[in-house]
Specification:
321 residues; D-Maltodextrin-Binding Protein, domain 2; ten-stranded mixed beta sheet
């Protein structure tokens, strides 16, 4: 004879099941989908996190690079993966920008994912070739204003934060840049080094080593504060551009529907990994600030930036793809 459980006990069963599930999970390897090719900033950050998570969880954490369509292919694939805690997504700011850049990116950044924690962020940096006479952002603006038709401005790709930072500057100052989009930050840096263009912008992480080597000149940073080993480079805020803060951030997500207890453990372990002194030093030296600030902060950032970038894309007249 089966005895019915009291209603209160029956309602408690799902809540009890989640911690039990988290304790038994994981029983096999996990994968982190990176929606870009190997070797780029997102891939580097994901591998740093993967090594730490593997040690913390006691299971292999494998990187799966699925590039294409500005990140949309990999992100869409992650959104359709089983929500069982074995598929994670590490992606960059394109995750929120593409919601306004593409008519149908294939996913919704708010509805289709659970935000776990920001991993790291890199401010954008306005750059000039070392051989260029342009030595400040004001000089860049004046040169652009005096150049018929506008100056060529190299960027890591249409819709990247450096591209949009350039568009924002052009709108504010009433100047024109002829945007030269590359397929990666590395190619944008190479275009500057080769003299194909005189000015441009990348995330700091992508050009930091070339700036420190004296091959590129940093004119201004778009972060909230000066960089620790570049004390002479001003921020846009210091130069009189209110609210001009743009960053390439990297975040950790799971597909919507992943059990809450698993999400909580993943967030906790990821935050611990990124807070380790050796991780902080490694990320900072590569041009990233580490902000393991948890689910709510990342979710708020995603929601806020989807709107911010969509408005800038429309104002700059960038056609949706």
């Amino acid at each position: 004879m089966t005895t019915a459980l009291p209603r209160r006990a029956a309602l408690a069963l799902p809540a009890l099941a989640l911690p039990a599930l988290a304790q038994s999970w994981p029983t096999r390897s996990l994968r982190i989908v990176v929606p870009f090719g190997p070797g780029g900033p997102t891939d580097v950050v994901a591998r740093i996190l993967a090594n730490g998570l593997s040690a913390a969880l006691g299971q292999p954490v494998v990187i799966e690079n699925r590039g294409g369509a500005g990140g949309n292919i990999g992100v869409t694939a992650a959104s359709r993966a089983p929500a069982d805690g074995y598929t994670l997504l590490v992606t960059s700011t394109g995750f929120v920008i593409n919601a306004g850049l593409f008519r149908n990116p294939g996913y919704d950044p708010v509805r289709d994912f659970v935000a776990l924690t920001e991993i790291g962020a890199s401010p954008d940096v306005f750059l000039a070739r070392a051989e260029s006479p342009i030595r400040s952002l004001d000089e860049l603006v004046e040169r652009a204003r005096a150049t018929a038709g506008g100056m060529h401005f190299t960027n890591p790709g249409t819709g990247s934060t450096p591209h949009l930072a350039g568009e924002r500057l052009a709108i504010i100052k009433g100047i024109r840049f002829l945007q030269v989009a590359n397929s990666s930050a590395a190619l944008a840096v190479q275009a500057l080094l080769a003299g194909n263009t005189e000015i441009g912008a990348t995330a700091l992480a992508s050009s930091h080593s070339q700036i420190k080597a004296g091959r590129l000149r940093a004119l201004a940073l778009t972060g909230p504060a000066r960089w620790f080993d570049m004390p002479d480079v001003p921020t846009m805020l210091e130069l009189g551009y209110p609210d001009f803060v743009t960053e390439t951030f990297h975040g950790l997500f799971t597909p919507a529907g992943t059990p809450d207890a698993i999400n909580a453990r993943l967030a906790r372990e990821a935050m611990a990994v990124m807070s380790q002194p050796e991780t902080l030093a490694r990320m900072q030296a590569a041009g990233f600030v580490v902000r393991p600030n948890g689910p709510q902060a990342l979710a708020s950032r995603v929601s806020r930036e989807v709107t911010m970038w969509r408005e800038l894309i429309a104002r700059a007249g960038i056609a949706q793809e």
